[in-house]
Amino acid sequence: MSVEAPILPSTPLANAGGVVHPPAPSARARRRKLPFSGWHFLLVPVAFLFLLPFVEMFLTSVEPASEINKFPPAFIPSHFTLDGYQKLFEQSDILHWLLNTAIVSASAIASHLVLCSLAGYGFARLKFPGRSFGFLAILATIMVPTQLLMIPTYIMFARLGLVDHLSAAIVPWLASAFGIFLMRQFFLSLPAELEEAGLIDGCTRLQVFFRIVLPLAKPALATLAIFTLLGSWNDLVWPLIAINNDHAFTLQLGLTNFQGTRRTEWSLLMAGNVIATLPLILFFLAAQKQFVATMTFAGLKG
User: Distance of CA 243 to CAs 103, 196, 251, Å?
Assistant: First the structure.
């Protein structure tokens, strides 16, 4: 009786030497395979469009004063000069303003990371009376325009003796409703089983928070640090109201007063803007991976 050989799925054929050659891809598949995503055809021009103002700002800062107001304007100056930076350092206290702004931003980031993470974890995991109402009340403060709070806040700061001091720019940035909301949402995305395992092993709630939860929350903490840095570094309206002391000027406030006390010298102003913008760009480039991870909720999922 004849036995038919089973029909096996097609496999790559072997040559006489026993070497298996995979089937060659079709010409259409080779044409469709790109070394990058097709979205790059859209994102790269958009990126250059957003980069153009920063490039123009830098070129204006190193452009001779005689060519800045020239018409038609030249995108690339005929020659580069650092006179704008030299005059800026000679005629202003920009280094002192930069130091004050760094102190304000560092204090804001540190307090945000501590207070907002603790509050966000409490609203996400702890059960206590009024938890939902308290969280909604905090979120409701986001809808209150800051302009309505400036007068009562100034009166309160004046009674506390904080006006005309650098602390007047630090205290409003100790915590924020957005930071609490961001951290709460990220903590909710983490599996509770990890924390329960820590509690079973004998850890306290604070030990679970600092040893298990916070290491997993690095993307959210980096994102919160970026938003806090952007807000505190570029804050102008409140320091303009609460600070009249030259020694307590922040960078944005100092540049605004420096521009208003003299004829606008665009090379000096653009040089100050470059100095004010460069730390933000460097900080974002250092934390962009964590920022993207938080925006896509890259934390562990249950």
Answer: 15, 48, 12
DSSP string, 194-206: HHHHHHHTT--HH
Q: Which residues pair with 20 in a beta bridge?
A: 14
Question: Interior CA angle at 240 toward 108 and 69, to 5°?
Answer: 110
154 inside domain: yes
pLDDT, one tens digit per residue, over 125-172 is 888 898 899 999 999 998 888 888 899 999 999 999 889 899 999 999
Q: Is residue 294 part of a domain?
A: no
What tens digit of pLDDT does each residue of 187-241 get?
998 888 888 888 888 888 888 888 889 888 888 898 899 899 999 999 999 999 9
Q: Are 139 and 176 in contact (CB under 8 A)?
A: no
User: What kind and span of H or E run contains 242?
Assistant: helix 237-242
In whole angstroms, give the CA distance from residue 302 to residue 299: 10
Residue at 79 is within a domain: no
Burial of 276 (0-12, 13-18, 19+ CB in 10 A): buried
User: Between vectors from CA 239 to CA 238 and to CA 244, what angle results, nearest 5°?
Assistant: 130
The CATH number of whichever domain residue 99 belongs to comes to 1.10.3720.10
Query: Do 225 and 112 meet the contact criterion of CB atoms below 8 Å apart?
Result: yes
Please calculate the CA angle 222-130-179 and round it to the nearest 5 degrees.
Answer: 15
Domain residues for 161?
Answer: 93-247
- Is 82 part of a structural domain of the chain? no
- Which residue in the block uniquely carries the two structure tokens 């974890």? 121
> Under DSSP, is residue 174 helix (H, G, I), strand (E, B) or coil?
coil
Tens of pLDDT, residues 249-302: 999 998 888 776 556 777 888 888 899 888 888 888 887 776 676 666 544 343
Q: How many domains does the chain have?
A: 1
Task: Answer whether 117's CB lies under 8 Å from 221's CB.
Answer: yes
124 vs 188: CA distance, rounded Å: 6
